[in-house]
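User: Can you fold this complex?
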Amino acid sequence: MTLQPDTFKSLVKDAAEQVIASAPELTALDQAIGDGDHGSNMKRGFQAVLGKLDTIGAQPLDEALKTIGKTLVMTVGGASGPLYGSFFLAAGEALSQKELPEDLAEVFGSGVNAVSARGRSQAGEKTMLDVLVPVLEILKAEAGRSDLIERVRATASEAVARTAPMQATKGRASFLGSRSIGHIDPGAKSSCVLLHAVCSTLEARQ
Amino acid sequence: MNDLVSIVIVSHSMDIAKGTADMVRQMVGSEVKVAFCGGDPDGGLGTNVGRIMDAINDAWSSKGVAILVDLGGAETNSEMAVEMLEPERRQRVVVCNAPIVEGAVMAATEAAGGSSLEQVKAVAEELSAG
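Assistant: Here's the predicted assembly.
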């Protein structure tokens, strides 16, 4: 898996467009257990990312990730802004000392740790970490395998489904207590949308 | 020169943020600087890191700034805003774990007496302890 600058630019474009397209679904999920703004917040953030696509495409990868992170922090308008923003800022910071694809798990892991620190949360609390952490485990355990992209895709899908029976203890959904059980977490879903978009673009470019 | 801790109010709603600031000014007076912000970048309900940073810088006091927030995203975005400030300012800003209206009034009352940032935060957070 090599990552040329034009591949990265189309990755960002495809991922942003997928998130924007999924905004109604994210909002519907968030109306069930949150405050119903996840879709519109993510849409606003990724529209701003699309607006900077030429800048992002012209930057070195580490700087490009930081630009994405900072854009999300400044435009999303909900807690998901700092959470996703911290992921990309930390991943960009890590990448400045690392190489892709060899250090992919380490770079991704830096982003996951930043989300965990920002949200003071761990996997198992019905959040985006319930998708990001299992995907990180796959990246660590199965690095270099020829079917890694397919494994990431499947892991993300399964991980989203596993948030349904969880009870939320972080974020707005925690106000609902046991009533959060039975609903998929909107942040887990948006993480899955992003990961699936990345998988699809990488497959198409292989 | 400003030797009193300042207060920043961050709500999802501009109306709540402004109303809270109005209450602080009426109940405590205007010697404590109060800045407020509310709403997402499009003006809907939500919070906005850039405006939170502006509010902190507008209210800046060498003695520090205490931030009062309403719900989850306001806290997360406020913490993010603090981290994005100039390094020398980051250490002098705290996010208080307190109800927004009562916390702002209590924090401003304590600040008006010349208390330290740590004392202001502690007094506001006593409201959440009971």
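The first helix of chain A runs from residue 5 to 21. The interface with chain B takes residues 35, 37, 40-41, 44, 73-75, 77-83, 85-86, 118-119, 171-172 of chain A (CB under 8 Å).
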